[in-house]
UniProtKB/TrEMBL annotation:
Protein name: ABC transporter permease
Domain ABC transmembrane type-1: 96-297
Gene3D superfamilies in alphabetical order: MetI-like
SUPFAM superfamilies xrefs: MetI-like (SSF161098)
Signal peptide positions (record): none
Keyword field: Cell membrane, Membrane, Transmembrane, Transmembrane helix, Transport
Chief localisation class: membrane
Cell location: Cell membrane
Amino acid sequence: MGKFIVNRMIAAGFVLLGSLLLVFFINYSLPGDAVDQMLEGTGATPEMAANLREELGLDLPFHTQFLEYLKNILQGDFGHSIVNNAPVLDKIITQFPATIALTIVSAILSIIFGITLGVFSAIHHNSVIDYVARLIGLFGISMPTFWSGILLILIFSVTLGWFPSIGSDGWITLVLPSIALGLVGSGAIVRMVRNSMLEVMNEQYILTLRSKGLSEKTVMYKHALRNALIPSITIIGMMIGDMLGGAVVIETVFSRQGIGRLVADAITAKDLPVVQGVVFFSAIVYITINFLVDISYSVIDPRVRKSF
């Protein structure tokens, strides 16, 4: 188990480094830079722009800028925003809780809704319940998050007036964004749980349990579901990570605070320190989720635990 944790931590370090390197390279390669954004419409001369680039270190070679950024990160310094000179860490700490809350609520809704529909779909295979559950799952997977968000606003905010359409004040503003963000994940979970349950229900040990006189409820929910959840956990872990990316769209549609809007504004302004900081923290969250997914395998399936 200890060797497994060490290997995962080493892999996590490479993932973090690769994520930072990729985003840094993309931002470095794009035409223009933050100085162009800062001096736009000010009438600044090319000499003034060159002096500002030198002051900010934007005239240095790519590898020099990247290594300097890594050195600062190791010292706990994520730099300052090029746009307003605010500490990047402070901006992230201010916005991150709103995104985490949105992601957690969306994930809970997706897991509850997806597993419930998937189990009922498998148990009532080829029935009306099965067809409806599969249709709902397909609907969730097929809908773009921005379209489902706009649709929810039109129905439940504009038409019915049940929920606010924008803002980040209180739990009520989380309802529509969480549903819009959670629909895609729930659709994927429905399909995975259904397929896994159908496969497990045909296993020999399920027939043995039934022959021993165990109730159908015990066989389905205590034994079949437990084994069917093992492949579904991978989907759930990936889904939660994807929700961090989906938050960019949802927070824009619903005008919510969060790192989604923060990084979108930073990309528009070519504010590289803010983009890098958000990527760093997002990668940590994603890696942590995948690490917990790997550990959860050992909790659900003792055979996995013995292999550590």
